[in-house]
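Methods — Computational structure assignment.
A single polypeptide chain was analysed. Its primary sequence is given first, followed by the predicted tertiary structure written as structure tokens.
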Amino acid sequence: MLPTRCAGCRAGGVPLRSGVCAACARLLEGLVPAAVAPRPGVPHCVALGPYGGVLRESLLAYKEHGRHGLAPPLGALLAAAALAVAESTVAGSRSVPCGAGAPRIALVPVPSTARAARERHGDHVLRLARHAAERLRRVGVPAAVARPLAARPRPDSAGLDAAARSAAAATAFRLRRPAASRLAAARPAVIIVDDVLTTGATLGAAHAVLAAVDIPVAGAAVLAETLHKSPREPAGSGRTAPVSALDHPGTPSG
């Protein structure tokens, strides 16, 4: 009933495009998937941008403030990052065209704990993964969501330092064996997806659980990475398209 402010800059009284104003939409659609600096135990990982500015505010509005209408455009962003990961795994190449020759992709979301899902009215990463898979299918890339992981109770990582995050992540997940068996039999390009990469402990733990049952992981895709001393490297061979190349109508085209 009340006017909604832009999720990116919080401006009011302006036309919104999938939850953000035109200026913030342009910033989001200009994002280009890029490989993050290597972290111990983390597979090859691609992010859309640093955790700041419009991307950070949009993520917080979605995750913490119930703006679930941002899931489709954020899912499209995640699809662009996942596609960059998948492209880098084909025949050792850092860039291949999508379409009929693209790999079959299984997006594995990092699962939320039961407590987090209750507080956020659902598993926010699973919701993003489903939108990302739908977006990939729309552009001709066979993709689906697989759920071989379940979350064990653990403290919220937001207030933890690096050592505490690592300790909490070590036992954060368990295997859902029926789903894991189906994933292993299908042998798609498995990409772990999450919203934000901080220390890498969570992605590393998820990767370790899958590796323990011989499920190869092509890489990981996230929306944002926290600032790191090493510069981000372009994903692929430098020909990776900006997010807008996914051409998702009605959302920030990125």
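Note: The radius of gyration is 17 Å.
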